[in-house]
Amino acid sequence: MTAAKQRTTPAVDVGRGLRLHRFQTPGGLPVTVAQRGRIPLVAVRLVLASGAAGDPAGKDGLADFTMRLLRRGTAHRDAHALDEAIEFVGASLGLFAGEDQVAVALTTPAEHLPAMLEVLSELVRVPSFPEEEVRTERERSLGQFANDVDDPSLLADRALLRTAWAGHPYGHDVSGTRASVSSFGREDARRFHATHFGPRPAQLFVVGAVDPDAVGRQIESAFGPWAGGPDHGVEVPPPAGVARSGTVVVVDRPEQTQSQVRLTGPAYRRGAPVQFAAQVVNVTLGAGFTSRLVREVRVKRGLSYGVGSSFDTLRAGGLFSISSFTKVETTGQLLSVIRQETERMRERGPTQAEVEKAQRYLAGLFPLRTETNESLAAVLADMALYGLGDDWLDRYRDRVRAVTRAETRDAAARYCYPEAPLTVVVGPAERLRPQLERFGPVEILSADDVL
Amino acid sequence: MSPRRKTDLLFPVHEAQLSNGLRVRMVPDHDAPVVSLYTFFQVGSRNERPGITGISHLFEHMMFNGAAKYGPKEFDEVLESNGGRSNAYTTHDVTVYYEDFAADALDTVLDLESDRMRSLTIDDRSLRSEREVVKEERRLRVDNEPAGLMDEALHALVYQAHPYRWPVIGWMADIEAIRRQDCEAYFRTFYAPNNATLWVAGDFDPARLLGRIRKAYGDIRKGPPAPAIVDAEPGQRGERRAELRHPSRAPSLVIAYRGPKVTDPDTLTLDVLQFILGVGEGSRLQRALVYGKRLAVNVGVDWSWRRDPGVFAFHLELQPDADPRAAEDALYAELRRVAEQGVEPREVEKARNNLRAHLLREFTSNSGRAHGLGSYELFLGSWKHGLGLPEAYGRIDAAMVQAAARRWLDASQRSVVTLIPEEARS
User: Fold this and answer.
1) Which of A107, A144, A298 minimises the CB distance to B133?
2) Is residue B73 within 8 Å of B112, Cβ to Cβ?
3) B243 catalytic, yes or no?
4) What is the mean pLDDT of residues A329-353?
5) 3-class DSSP state for residue B253?
6) CA–CA distances in Å: residue B104 to residues B33, B101, B366
7) Is B356 in Cβ contact with A305 (below 8 Å)?
8) ipTM of this predicted structure
9) A237, exposed or middle or buried, with CB in 10 Å at 0-12, 13-18, 19+?
């Protein structure tokens, strides 16, 4: 009864009035409880340090598929009983796969937390992967691919990822492809679960208006028997840059009147010290409504409704990408403007005034990133998974404010495409080709090539 | 100013009204040094007329193009430089502007917002540029997006006379035709303080804040009352159908029934019915159409509150080889089951639990509190009705759900749009 309480270490003060209570279950599951707020809704997040990068050869999408099957049956309950248990009380459950992690996110009215911890424990410890449910989920996934053909933005993102990181464990969409998903059977999901699940590579986070000691006892009771698992997540080698830099890949969608446009180049791995300077560059070039790209593309020329840049960073590497769209006729013009702006940023970096503005923007909005219990749970999980340090929340704003203009110039020179970026365009290939040839060799794919 | 507290409520709401008619609502919370400010204007595409459809939405873009004190594009420049972000949205019924920002930028944000309410600049140059941006937005959300095309076809089918007939973003030729003079008239009528409500939530002292709001907005002149909307929609005398051919790989369906307006007593009962039918993996339609008959990949039920009579709609993304007629029949069989056999009391209780959880979730952030309470005030007449929703849902029972299903899910009041895949033509 008091085992968990005995394990409770003194709370760690991580700044901003937030205290983290940490302990391990006897089976070895690391637990973090953060007590805060008054609204009686509690966020629970369980993460495991292996994701889609651990999909076996020929089985792209297996991590994601396995996650979705967790709620379709366990040793004790069938899918309907699980849905009822969760949904009757007004709780909600999300099952996610990323490249580096899989996560179960649960939000529940506080009074049902003990029961929901039992459900969560069941899902991750003893899923049963019923044959019939595996078949239904596979058909549903394949049906989803057919519907995805109609989403040009999604086609662009898929084409970008699989081209940029071709041959690397990150080089496929987490949902896999029609070919890989067609091959999924019960045994695949069962094996993925047996290989990657267990308390050792997992961490559990609970955030909300809770009593940490009481939650400790409830977790103890729910997860007590869970033991084992691999010592760490799948090892992913750093990607060797971006494949096919300088190429323009076109996904042919003849009927479209608008092109989706993406550019990408290599960036840093998650948590690298350069991140603060890089974020200042990103804000200046392409985040928010007053970035250089928004000004040049949307305000001055009315070329698009939206344009943005982002660093997408993972455990082993990252990408710096720009995303926009425009009517087919102005696709070449849009790309010219974007290339011109990245070049200008690469050569001179942000001005001192832009650095200061980006610092105020990032620092001012930072508290919003952890405003809800769900978002704080997700940030705490990232801090743990990516080794960001316990002082991440407390020091973030100081670190952003400490960035110098010289650092941002270095970051801009490194990440704003010193080598020509990989470009992806989704739209009518015949009409686009003449506009695109000046940006690099054009390769044409069909939607089927990327699904 | 009257602070109000309710037992089930975890935060106070302070109310005031300025002499120019501007309504002010303040929800202080000191957990984090941030504030959200929402401005609700009671105007949307329902206030438009043919020829200038989409003006509400285009005008929303124009609000960022400068006023007397802060020039073109300075709004976001100043806001972002002070650690804030902004956005806006337009619906059939309402136009909403919002900012999230560091608490110490509150005075600056009031200055920015009141400047554009007082003295917006509307010039031809920015209108030309925004027009192009909006056309790209339309290409994104409608012309190259089957769900957008279907939604547009559905509204044109359900409504013959009411302004809900046209899309919020407007017809392409109308977006092209809107003139500066249209925008000016629009601003005078619908953006006056007496047509607006300010909701502020976050880290501030309400008494001091009200003083600052009076100073910033107090001198803005009251506008004329907004013209009344004539709802000339005739009754529907039988099912209506439309087909949409598109180079998709899989068919889809949108099926809608004419529903009541938000203030109708059946609105909340339909909320419960929506949850029983379509919200959650264990909902009736998910079980029947996705997992049982495996006809659909995704099923959604959309019952969006509207100020005038709205639609209770079903969205079905089908399996590539599914027959849309078979999917329709399977849906109708489920709806008949509700009308004829009713629902279980446990299903009603489940829906209530989920509606309460939704409400709590909405109230976990400053932005959610300002937006949620502002919307409830606009649609239900008072934000207090929003806070009383859990009790109101508690009064709904299985018999009421069955009666509402019988009344509103009547085949003669149905409109059906089918997306039929066909070969691409370039």
Assistant:
1) A298
2) no
3) no
4) 98
5) strand
6) 8, 8, 15
7) no
8) 0.93
9) exposed
